Amino acid sequence: MTIKTPALPPEIQNLEPYKPGKPIEELERELGIRGAVKLASNENPLGPSPKAVLAMQEVLKDVHRYPDGAGFELRDALARRFGVKFEETCLGNGSDEIIEFLCRAYVRPGQKALAAAPSFLMYSKLVQVAGGVFAEVPLNRDFTIDAQGMLDAVTSDTRLIFMNNPNNPAGTALTGEAMRDFLDQVPSGVLVVLDEAYIDFASAKDCANGCDFLNHPKTPVVVMRTFSKSAGLAGMRIGYALGPEEVIRAFDRVRQPFNTSLPAQAAAVAALEDKEFLQKTRNLVHQGLSDLYRCFDELGLFYVPSQTNFVLVKIGPKAVQVAGELLKRGVIIRSMASYDMPEFLRISVGLPEENQRFIEELKSIATGGPGL
């Protein structure tokens, strides 16, 4: 007997699932190898914050209870850290869920959201799920966000503008001055979302910081951040948003009541205070970027200096082939073909020995085949 299921709406039928970086365990099973390294998903190679681990261990005895649905302790810590009101904070199952809140609350069928191209793929997917129209504005030739192009693309149907700053996958960031000039010109009725998943890695002193714009007099601003990257809590799925009370109340209307777990909330509170681990992470990333730049310079490869924990490098027509060859050698990196950049690879900074493994394998490919 054939069971007939309800028809999927077109926006869901046409949705391509997000494809994350290949897990180490999957690659080792496929190739029958051990000791693979993953430099594909912009994770913290040092692991999680030690203080976060201790905090999780302490609350495990209580996981038979539901977590605090309001996330009071973590939201209170965020409010104190960033000098905002408790009511101006919200928690998410990673910052991905914050994007989902935004689309559920503010995008109706036919309404538009804007983002740079390329940028984080989940913007387009969640706008599509909401039935909205997703429009992209190509990056400038120097791989920075085209702020003026964003403004020019705004129409009467535009509800959201996602500013992925620092940008993923380019690694570039707008200055504070450029961001302020942009916000001053955004038309009324548009919510600007500053996605700052990588802000903790930015080394440029003039990099825009979303917290400086939360009280912008003209344009409503939501800042999204995550504990997945610098705090090393990607597996716990915990992120947060800062923004106007009206927006946070809207999020509460569309979110699940227990959307973040007890261990995740405890880990994030502790990670906020682990300044030593954050500095150790930053030092590791900045040194790793320098080592990767040196390799690319030696090979004559173009790359984009990064304000994140990854770097975008142009390999050329053989980029997808090179990514496949690296996989065979146990090095997982990210091909940018899914970002419509088939000649580029994105390399996450790993531990020094992992970076060196990638460098040696890339040089071997360049000199011994299949070549670059």
UniProtKB/TrEMBL annotation:
Keyword match Transferase: yes
Reactions accelerated catalytically = L-histidinol phosphate + 2-oxoglutarate = 3-(imidazol-4-yl)-2-oxopropyl phosphate + L-glutamate
Q: Name one Pfam family in it.
A: Aminotran_1_2
What pathway is it annotated to? Amino-acid biosynthesis; L-histidine biosynthesis; L-histidine from 5-phospho-alpha-D-ribose 1-diphosphate: step 7/9
From what superkingdom does this record's organism come? Bacteria
Cofactors named for this entry:
pyridoxal 5'-phosphate
The residue ranges of the Aminotransferase class I/classII large domain are 37-361
Per UniProt, what is the name of the gene that codes for the protein in this document?
hisC
* Any coiled-coil regions, as ranges: none
Q: What is this protein called?
A: Histidinol-phosphate aminotransferase
Q: Which GO terms describe its molecular function?
A: histidinol-phosphate transaminase activity; pyridoxal phosphate binding
Against InterPro entries, the record matches this protein to:
Aminotransferase_I/II_large, HisP_aminotrans, HistidinolP_aminotransfase, PyrdxlP-dep_Trfase, PyrdxlP-dep_Trfase_major, PyrdxlP-dep_Trfase_small
Q: How does it assemble?
A: Homodimer.
